[in-house]
């Protein structure tokens, strides 16, 4: 059955498997929902598996060094109004006191309620 599933859109692995309605990649951990026409729609999830959407508020779960600077985004920093983009750093946002940045979804947790 794996020969009918598309390769992983993140790492191009052919070892994709299906759990319920999600396709999963065992090599990079990427999960996505296949479209009806066979194409894939990437689902961006935070560090604990919550689905992220444009406009969500997230909290940074780990101190992150800012590339090319001595600045650090501290754990617990709340970031409002995120925008999802394609690529390795899949969140564009404006971090208070630092400015415009791109983040990886694996280092944030969605704020609920």
Write structural notes for this entry.
- Pfam families: YjdM, Zn_Ribbon_YjdM.
- This is Alkylphosphonate utilization protein.
- It comes from Pararhodobacter marinus.
- Belongs to the YjdM family.
- Residues 4-32 form the Protein YjdM N-terminal domain.
- 0% of the residues lie in helices and 33% in strands.
- It contains no helices and twelve strands.
- The chain is mainly beta.
- A hairpin with a 2-residue loop joins strand 1 and strand 2.
- The model has no long low-confidence stretch (mean pLDDT 85).
- Strands 1-2-3-4 form a four-stranded antiparallel sheet, with no helix packed on it.
- The chain folds into two domains: 1-38, N-terminal domain of TfIIb; 57-110, SH3 Domains (SH3 type barrels).
- The radius of gyration is 16 Å and the shape is elongated.
Topology:
Layout: E1 17-19, E2 22-24, E3 31-34, E4 40-42, E5 58-60, E6 64-65, E7 72-73, E8 78-79, E9 83-84, E10 91-95, E11 99-103, E12 108-110
Antiparallel strand pairs: 1-2, 2-3, 3-4, 5-8, 5-12, 6-7, 9-10, 10-11
Share in helix: under 10%
The computed structural class is mainly beta
What's the number of helices? Answer: 0
Number of domain units: 2
Radius of gyration (CA) equals: 16 Å
CATH fold naming of the largest domain: SH3 type barrels
Q: Main sheet?
A: 4 strands, antiparallel
CATH class of the largest domain: Mainly Beta
The CATH superfamily title of the largest domain: SH3 Domains
How many extended strands?
12
Strand order of the largest sheet: 1-2-3-4
In CATH terms, what is the architecture of the largest domain?
A: Roll
**Backbone shape:** elongated
- Straight-line N-to-C gap: 40 Å
Overall pLDDT metric: 85
Order of secondary-structure elements:
EEEEEEEEEEEE
- Stretches where pLDDT falls below 50 for ≥5 residues? none
How much strand?
A: 25-35%
